[in-house]
Amino acid sequence: MCETLQLISEGRCPEFAMSLRVCVVKAIVIAFLLPALWLLCALPIQAAPLQLGSDLPYTVYEDVSGELTRDEVLPILQAGPEVNRLGAFSKGYTRSAYWLRFELPATAFVTGERWMQVRPNFLDDVRIFYRPLSSGGVWQERRAGDTQRGVIGDVDDRFALFVMPTSETGYEVLLRVVSSSAMLLQLVVWVPTEFTPQAMRATGLWSAYFGLAALSSLMALALAIVLKKRLLWSVTAMSVSYGLVACIQGYVAWIVPGIGRLLQHYLTGGLTLLSYAAVLWMAVEALGLRRRLPWVYRLVLGSSGLIVLLLSSIPLGLYGEAVGVLAVLYLPTGFLCIGIGLYLWLRDRPSFADLLLGASPLFCIAVSLFGLFSVFGWVPFREGIYVVWQIALVVNMLLVTAIAVFQVRDRRLQEVEKTQLARELRVEREARFHQRQFMGMVAHEFRTPLAVISASLENLRLLPASCDQARRYNRIGRASERLVQLTDNCLADARLDAGELLIVRKMTCLVELLASAASLVRLSDHHCWKLMMEGEVVSDVPAINAMANVDPALMRIALSNVIDNAVKYSSGGTILIELARADDGWSIAVTDSGKGVDESLMGTIFERYRQANDLDQPEQGVGLGLYVSRQILRAHSGDLRLARNTTSGCRFAFTFPDHREDCSA
After folding, report:
1. Which of 129, 198, 202, 605 has the smallest C-beta neighbourhood within 10 Å, fewest atoms?
2. Residue with more model confidence, 463 or 194
3. Are the CB atoms for 287 and 358 separated by under 8 Å?
4. In this structure, are strands 527-533 and 573-582 parallel, antiparallel, or unpaired?
């Protein structure tokens, strides 16, 4: 199972992952339908019995010392005003004993005996006194509570259940209640024939509930172990709430006879504290506060840790005080989590999955806050709130676990894609490195045969030749010069990419350098070139003294590339080369009479392996010329740019500083 989960998380089991996704969607739908099903089954049951408060008005007295006897408190209760309210009797966390008195009328026994059910199970001591009305008979006493020993109740049930015999006059009933947990009393008087189907239905519902609880807990634990994510560990920690539900519903004492009731007594307090701590932890993990708001994350986790430390109060008999501290810690922290969640949703506009992931634990916090208010007596107790909370636990764990798994799976897929991309980039980088080495080697090896061709061509030109032979010699010269230029570009590109382009500056005559770079133009049958300096045509090259501190070999490559492009991308005409002083440096402009550069290529012509020609003009080349030229100029602290682009020609401008001080040094 762990291996399967690992494969799913890494995206290597797509078929099972897809079926799991369908199952999760079904689980979410079932989880949302579960509350409606629960209430549909529970509501008809709640209308049948007589309940303390709503059906049976009572009088109440607080015995602060806890030392009053039944006979001492009875006159006070008989003279006190009756209370008739909806919901349970609730007074929060108090060390006082409470006495309640009510009357069970004779009309309640028309169909025979009644069964009196006392809830919840976490009450320490409940003493029930009853006697027939209007007869002053002998008081009968029964006891309940999770600190009592021996058999409790007349019928084997999860809650204390007492048989009230048939009476023609009814009963006067006194209750004395003491609790180290919340003072919360629900007393229900059943008709036996109605209780049995209710108990069967409740058992079926709780069986389904704890089945889902076990499934969600085991799934969260397995995923947490495999995926090692804090969110899944926090979901696993929320499983303690199921233990609390089992204690409140009396399953611990019912399943474990003897010590089960006392064990349930201590577990109720401990699991209550742990449940509040766990829901805070899960909320901050689901909201991603560790990454998004670290200070809030630390604050909430600190509060959660302090709540866990309150467990030490239980064996010391200070649970009531511990719950007071819990309220001080949990109330502001819970409201802070809800507020931060709303703020982040409004700010970040999350996806539906992220919204559902964060909303689920925040809903549990909201319900637990209302439950805390009710047990303290600040708001009326509503059993429906506890039903919603119990169902929300299952829904929350299923939703958060499912969403967390798929978020982890998506992150793993992204990591796999990044790893794959990094591997491909590494392979591509290595391939380019070997390609550059090969091109550099080939370019270097081409130099010797090209030099032989050039020398042989010069020797042929010394011999008498016809016009047709001279044209052939020119074509051979153009091809040779192009190959020389290509090898120079390949070598320069390899050095640029390796970061090994060494600039060897020396004082160079720019006019002679331009004349050498423009030698390609003389080999063309349809082009000529003209050199201008400071607006005047240069006719005598040796007479012009325009010196600059540059690397002549590299600068010749840069100039030749641009001049060669001017020849290639224009059908004929004059290539105008302009030389001028520019502040503390020089400016060289090369203007052709071609068609210009297409607008769609304007942003890429200076990139490596990009060409400026269109589909209708498939010129030869590898797209290195302008890239190499610009890099050479930038290595000289200058730049190369396209100064003008029209349909009647382009103008490329070189600018670079003089740096004469480098030469003098």
Report:
1. 202
2. 194
3. yes
4. parallel
Q: What phi and psi, each to the nearest 5 degrees, are found at residue 102?
A: -150, 170
Band of residue 405 on the pLDDT scale cut at 50, 70, 90: confident
Task: Please say whether the beta carbons of 89 and 184 come within 8 A.
Answer: yes
d(CA 43, CA 59): 28
Q: Tell me the β-bridge partners of 530.
A: 576
Q: According to DSSP H, which parts of 249-351 are helical?
A: 251-255, 260-286, 289-292, 294-309, 319-348
Q: Kindly report, residue by residue over 283-310, the tens digit of the pLDDT.
A: 999 888 988 899 999 999 999 999 999 9
What are the pLDDT digits (tens) for 301-348? 999 999 999 999 888 888 888 888 998 999 999 999 999 989 888 888
3-state secondary structure string, 139-201? CEEEEECCCCCCCCCCCCCCCEEEEECCCCCCEEEEEEEECCCEEEEEEEEECHHHHHHHHHH
As a whole number of angstroms, the distance between CA 109 and CA 170 comes to 8
All residues at 6 or more sequence positions from 458 whose CB lies less than 8 Å from its CB, including other chains: none
**Sign, CA torsion 406/411/413/416:** negative
Question: For residue 664, what pLDDT band results from cuts at 50, 70 and 90?
Answer: very low
- CA 279/CA 389 separation, integer angstroms: 12
Report the length, in residues, of the chain.
Answer: 665
Two tokens, residue 193 = 């024939």
Cα–Cα distance for residue pair 75/69, rounded to 1 Å: 11
643 within 8 A of 651, measured Cβ to Cβ: yes
Identify the three-state secondary structure at position 587: strand
